[in-house]
Amino acid sequence: MPKYGSPKPIADHELSVATAIATASENILMFGEYMQELMDENIIEARRGERIDGKELNKGALSHDDIRGNTFIMLAAGQETSAGVLQFILLELANNPVSQRSLHGAIDETCGDGDPSLWDYENLINPKMASMLGACINQTLRMTPAVVEIPEAVPSK
């Protein structure tokens, strides 16, 4: 039996299509409210002349909708990139059971037998990235880069 998983679904973890749509709609509205609050805070800071990065203010460059749209694209792109990396890591580990067992052992060594919901990720991130987990992530990114290189000019041949 796997240590961190089970073939049986978690209790109360069934989701109907109607519930999924309702939850997604609610989260989209919550995201919109969050973005509006964030923009309002930044507008107030800009009106006061406060800038954390020390750059000059550029008034009227983007509308609220432009900023919200750009933020959504950045968040979605980050999510998509992370999901792609995880997909390729799982594929590579499925094809390499020896590496899979080595990674499992490294995670157990770093985290111990404690409940994963109680792990302190702030204190575990550096040891994890210096272990087999970091090696798996870096190797996957080397083999299947999340962002492909786009040349500035097309070579003649």
From TrEMBL:
Keywords: Heme, Iron, Metal-binding. It comes from Fusarium oxysporum f. sp. cubense (strain race 4) (Panama disease fungus). The lineage of its organism: Eukaryota, Fungi, Dikarya, Ascomycota, Pezizomycotina. Belongs to the cytochrome P450 family. SUPFAM superfamilies: Cytochrome P450. This is Cytochrome P450 4F1. It holds the Pfam family p450. GO terms for molecular function: heme binding; iron ion binding; monooxygenase activity; oxidoreductase activity, acting on paired donors, with incorporation or reduction of molecular oxygen. The keyword Iron applies. Gene3D superfamilies: Cytochrome P450.
